[in-house]
Amino acid sequence: MGLKDKVAIVCASSKGMGRACAEALAGEGAHIVLCARHKDALKDASDAVREAGVRAVPVVADMTSEEDRARLVQTAESEFGRVDVLINNAGGPAPGSHTDHTIQDFRNAVELSMISSIDMTARVLPGMRERGFGRVINITSIAVKQPIVGLIMSNTARTGLVGYMKTVATEVAADGVTVNNICPGLILTDRMYDLLGEDATIDMKPPEGGGLTAELVGSIPMKRMGKPEEVGALAAFLASDKASFITGVSILIDGGAYKGLH
Known about the structure:
With 262 residues, the chain is an alpha/beta fold. The chain is built from eight helices and seven strands. A seven-stranded parallel beta sheet has the order 3-2-1-4-5-6-7, with helices on both faces.
């Protein structure tokens, strides 16, 4: 797909969708700069990426830290001389309704789910525009299309990010840089296993007798949750030359769960 020897930063890439994106890009020949807060999990992910025969550079970093974000981009540029692909990804804010959170909670959520991605994008865009090639891909949520009850901070911050990225996509389109958002629905990540426990099954089918998994899966027309590697495959496509005429869009990957037309 034209990704051989490209250089990608994949944020929050030690587990789940971030790791799946890193492995998918590596499978297409891209070198990966990974980051996460936990060193051991980051090492495991980096080792998995290297199995594809590419370079993997792990950076322990917290995406809410401006200093760490600067160091992450500096490391990529020091190791490879450039950044061709940026995948913005971060954990979601705490759940709750509008009465459950303080203003500081919202500030923290915006820093995690919006500002971190804006800052990372601003740091890599000048080089991408100068070279005439770049891909910025944001892992967001179905919530930017269809707000999820009980996730008011995520709904708010991620929707703001999509507005920013749509604007930037227009500003850099003529420079060979695309900016797109991936909007996952229910994906069976480690976090989902933690939430559902034994109720989650490997094949993503509801267990006999129903339960929480059955309730969740029942809301999805495909009757299963998504796999992290399916998100990774979409990210690899959007990063590739084959997606060079796609920009400024928010693509759902939700098994048909979204009920709207747009």
